[in-house]
Specification:
This protein is α+β, with helices and mostly antiparallel strands. The chain contains 13 helices and ten strands.
């Protein structure tokens, strides 16, 4: 005989044509609701993962994984600090830099962060060179007084490649006319677009030697690092601080952007909880279907009991029914949700093109396209959570079925 008996009877019930068509309808509705809930949860989680990935990628395109700086204005013995950092097995690249606030003057004026870099070393820590839309970073040679601007910053200043920009820094010098800030004319040789407003409209790059002269410095203000694992930044930072000594401090990208990524993580968690409640509501339909099925099969349950079926077997039979509905709903939901998440950016572009709408305007948002990044870890958690809800939904109806008294159920048969 087929074993286990509960699975055999449960599958027979599932395949059999029911006398009560409303139960079949409720069963179909339960499958559809569970599928839609799983699709929605997988898609939303994928979009949140996409936004998180895009934000990390774009921010880390302009900021390094970790930064070594001094406790004062300058970096003491920066060449030694550079060697110590490069010797760490987790550090893939290191580059010194000078950073200061500046006022840029052209047709219009605007404030920006002025960063002095070494063009040959900069690609080791960030990928700004890959986002150049005009010119090259290699043109930032020592003594050339060339400058590369974010495209939005150049537009706000009213300049382009080939124009001149006057840069004023906070370093004050004395003159016959009193104290005035240091100023120098720079030649615009390039533009970049990172896709992040704070960098595209607020960052200017010059050669590190020129930045040192402009700010009256004798060395860099810090060293930027690229690590082999950006999520391992804090342990590496602690190790470097121990090796370098107390006159240095090491900050990670997690420290400088902690609020932003904490907000993204919290938003993802809140969305997961909200959509999990939607799955819970969808599972209520499953409870209703099973309760009606138990009522409809009272005589069958009674006959099974008289043939020797135990209450445990009866519970197992109806749990199979509920889990089968859950499995079908989860299967359709995972399949369609994964497909939708994979093709979502293309679908959004098609909708925007056909209906002439823009969901994320580049003038307002950092990210102008709806991103989607399917994470199979999240898909697994969604499937597991839905399965658990489906399992819990079968317990009470199955328990009610196991409490059926044969004499009472067959009294009028």
């Amino acid at each position: 005989m087929f074993r286990p008996l509960e699975l055999f009877i449960g599958l027979r019930y599932a395949r059999a044509k029911r006398r009560n068509q409303f139960i079949s309808f409720i069963s179909t509705v339960s499958i559809v609701c569970i599928s839609i809930s799983v699709i929605a949860l997988i898609t939303v989680m994928s979009v949140m993962n996409g936004f998180d990935y895009q934000m990390r990628t774009r921010i880390l395109g302009a900021v390094s994984h970790a930064t070594v700086s001094g406790l004062g204005d300058g970096l003491h013995d920066w060449r030694r600090a550079l060697k110590v950092a490069e010797a760490n097995p987790h550090v893939l690249g290191a580059a010194p830099y000078v950073e200061s606030e500046a006022m840029l003057l052209a047709q219009r004026s605007g404030a920006a962060m002025l960063r002095g870099i070494e063009p040959a070393l900069e690609p080791k820590v960030v990928d700004i060179a890959q986002h150049m839309v005009a010119g090259k970073l290699d043109e930032l040679t020592p003594g050339s007084w060339n400058i590369v601007l974010g495209r939005d910053l150049a537009l706000s200043l009213g300049v382009g490649v080939g124009d001149r920009v006057t840069v004023a820094v906070q370093d004050i010098r004395s003159s016959p006319f009193g104290s005035i800030p240091r100023m120098r004319a720079f030649h615009v040789v390039g533009l970049f677009v990172l896709g992040m407003e704070q960098f595209d409209s607020g960052l200017a790059l010059v050669n590190m030697s020129d930045a040192e002269k402009l700010n009256s410095l004798t060395g860099p203000t810090g060293i930027r690092l690229r690590l082999d694992d950006l999520f391992n930044a804090r342990p590496v930072a602690a190790e470097l601080e121990h090796q370098l000594g107390q006159v240095y401090q090491v900050q990670t990208w997690m420290d400088t952007n902690a609020n932003l990524f904490a907000a993204l993580s919290m938003e993802k968690m809140v969305m997961f909880i909200i959509l999990s409640l939607i799955i819970l509501v969808a599972v209520i339909n499953l409870i209703s279907m099973l309760m009606m099925l138990v009522t409809d099969k009272q005589s069958d349950i009674a006959i099974l009991r008289t043939l020797g079926a135990t209450p445990r077997s009866i519970m197992g039979t109806f749990m199979v029914q509920g889990l089968l509905v859950g499995f079908v709903g989860i299967g359709f939901g995972v399949g369609l949700g994964s497909l939708l998440s994979w093709r979502l950016p293309g679908i959004i572009k098609w909708i925007e093109r056909v209906f002439h709408v823009t969901f994320l305007s580049p003038d307002v948002y950092y990210i102008s396209e709806v991103p989607s990044r399917l994470d199979w870890h999240d898909v697994g958690w969604v499937a597991l959570l839905t399965f658990v809800f489906s399992l819990l939904a079968t317990l009470y109806p199955a328990w009610r079925a196991s409490r059926t008294q044969p004499a009472q159920a067959l009294r009028y048969e």
